Structure formats: C-alpha cells, structure tokens
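ok so for the tutorial part 2 we go from a plain amino acid sequence to predicted structure tokens. step 1 is just haveing the sequence, like this:
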Amino acid sequence: MSLATTVVMWGLGLGVILGFIASKTNFCTMGAVSDVVNMGSWGRMRAWFLAIAVAIIGTNLLAYSGLLDLSHTIYTGASFPILTFIVGGLTFGVGMTIASGCGNKTLVRIGGGNLKSVVVFVFMGVAAIATLKGIFGAFRVNFLSPSSLTMQLEPNQTLPALLGSMMGMEGKTALIAVTAVIALALLVFIFMNKEFRGEKDNILAGVVIGLIIIAAWYITGHIGYAENPDTMEMTHMGTASRLAESMSFVAPSAYTLEFLGYWTDTSNVLTFSVASAWGVILGSFIHAKASGSFRWEYFTSAKDMGNHIIGALLMGFGGITAMGCTIGQGITGVSTLAVGSFVTLIAIIAGSAITMKIQYYLMMREA
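step 2 — the prediction. this is what the tokens look like for a chain of 367 residues:
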C-alpha cells in the first residue's frame, strides 16, 4: 500500500469515528447556535468549544514537538484577506441555518437516511466548484480578494507569531504561552457550568472530535510528509492541497462531485478530505442502524426544497470563500491559532444567529 493510500484510508477511518460520535451525541454546530439564540442553552455550544480547546492543545503540542509544521497549512500564511473571511463566514452562517445544518451535519444526516441532505450536499458541491473554479470564483477573486483588501501579517497570521514578534518572545515560548492562555480560558468557561459537567454526551463529543482533528493533523502533517517519487520534492501525500490537512467538509463536496464526474480520468485520485467525508456518512449510518434511529426523510413541500437548495448554495460559496466551515475553520483552522480562523468563526456564528432571529420574526408575524 502506498503512503498516499495509507493517508486516505486514515481519513476514511477518522471520518467513520467522527460520523458515529456526531450521530450518537447529536453534535451540531448550527444546533449549538440555535440552542443559545432560541433557548438560552449552552450545552452544545460548550461541546463545540471543548472540541476547539482539545484541538488547540493537541495541534500546538504537535507543532512544538516538531511533528507538524503549521506553515504547511492553508490557514497560517501572512496574507490576511479580511473581506473573504467576513463575507464567507457570514454567508456560510446564513446558508447553514436555511439548510438546517452545516456541512458535517449534512453528511451525518445522509447517513441517517435524510434525502433532503443528499440534495443539500449536491448543491453545496456545485456551488463549491463554482467558487473554486467557476463564475462564483471570479466574483471571489475580483471583488473579495484584491490586494487593497488584503493585509500582510508578519511573520504569519497565527497569534503566537504575532504576539511573539510584538513582545520579543522566542517562537516556541510564545506558542506554548498563547496556547495555554486560550485553552485554559476555554476550559474554565466550559466546565465552570455545573450542568455541563453532567452532560456526558456533550463532553464525549467535544473530546473525541477534538482528538480527531489532532489525529488528522498528525497523519497528513507528519506521517504523510514525504518525498514525492515523481517530483523528488517533499510534499504531503494523499491530500488535495498537497499541504497538511485536517477535517473540513465544504471543499470535499466539490472534490466528491469531481471525483465521480471524472471517474475514468487517471489523474483523478481519491484524497484524504473526500475519504473523510465519506467516512462521516458511513459512521453515521452505522450508528443509525445500530441504534434503530435510521429512517428515510424527504421534503414536505416545494418551499422546503427551495429553502434547502438556497442554503446549500450559500454554504458552498461561503465555505470556499472563507476557506472552511464550522469544522474546517471553526475547529481545524482555530486549532492553528490563525487570526483569520477566529474572524471566520465569529462571522459564521453571527450570520447564523441573525438569520435565526429573522426567521423567528417572520414566523411570529405570520402567526
């Protein structure tokens, strides 16, 4: 088995675990926002923050020990296109609310028999392709990413690098200090709530999903980092970007459609991100069957279908523009302590919360 295949198989396996746990614990980032906005319940939001805290600790320990080079990711460069993070994040937040779930939840629901989520996945993939290479991409490049709207944060846009540079701290010292402060603050906020300390499913979800993010970084960033036999250059084998990757679920929807559409093209290969997305579906299916919760669900009206398609298109555009979703930026990106990931996370939550408020207002007006 080649190294690239090994990396891809690990992606499938980690995806299965993530899908199983997300299905079992009802882990849902959009649901977390909804619980806070509509009911004042912070349980699932704390589970999301716990996953972030665990991922931050593990990811930066890998970086500190030399097992992961964070400069080999899409999140940590010096380029800081602020408008793409804000517009992409807001758009994704609106889209996931209209479509009843983010990219990860869409995959989990497919595994549970939700046919609506199949439609969401396809249209999200179409919009993602159009944003990567098509008409939406032209808008993204020409209007959201011009140099006049992009700052350069030196030496790079991670908080340890920026604060270390400002305060004259050595790189590894700054890395550990910032990691400790942010992770400790999150953990105090999470576990200061007595009710949450008794919520075993939410704690399980946060810890396991955080560990999955770390494992993916280790596999693609360390195990998969090797000399490419074709180019004789060091690269990250088995990933679509040829960089270190962890979990993210918008771009894989585009890569999945391309993989299926160009099946006979020998240059078209299965990658870590696509395998992990398929793994989430499989893991969710296994749990749904084992728990007896599998059931077919479908659209109840043309309006319902239209809303989900619009939401999916917004998620596809927003996720690619912001370089990630609630998992891809909200946990994976934030685990690198990249400033852009924090901006995107805030924008996603804001977009979702505002949309929920508007939906509630319209519902009350109709009533």
